[in-house]
Amino acid sequence: MDNVQLVIKPLTSNDAPAFKALRLKAILDSPAALWPTYEEEAGLTPQAIIERIRHNEHQIVFGAFSGLELIGIVGLRREPLAQVAHRAMLWGVFVDTAWRGSGVARKLLDTTVAHAREMKLLQLHLAVHTENPRAEGLYRSVGFERYGFEPRAIRIGDRFYDEHRMMLRLDD
What we know:
This protein is α+β, with helices and mostly antiparallel strands and about 170 residues long. The protein has a single domain (about 5-170), classed as Gcn5-related N-acetyltransferase (GNAT) (Aminopeptidase). The chain has helices at about 15-30, 40, 45-55, 105-120, 135-140; strands at about 5-10, 60-65, 70-75, 85-95, 125-130, 145-155, 160-170. The longest helix is centred in the middle third of the chain and has 15 residues, at about 105-120. The chain is globular. The protein starts with 5 loop residues before the first strand and ends with a strand.
């Protein structure tokens, strides 16, 4: 993996099948860390996937590629409403298990934060599963800070999972 050329770039409609496959893998790997169930994600049409990754003034999804293989993803979305246009939500952060610890997630986050600054955003928000200290540590290393806690944020069967809310100020 050390000699592999890693490319981070916005996803396009051509990447929709690879995006869907990686999302399904992410849900199997960490079902409590992502909101859709496997069945919900698997049931999305190709057009729905294309719309989810379509780059426009309110959203972008970056992919990390090793050669032609999509190995990591992160989404950034902001509301089009003027009063909240200064902030955006980071979502769907996932790196294939074979690539964890290789710096891919950090490169995805650095690219996304740089893009947010280009968009003149003032803050980024995210939610992280409280049972995932490794992910929270990564977010802290980029500068995110906890600002809240949501108990019972996700329910899988009869079990509830809590989430921490985190924010990165870009205007400091």
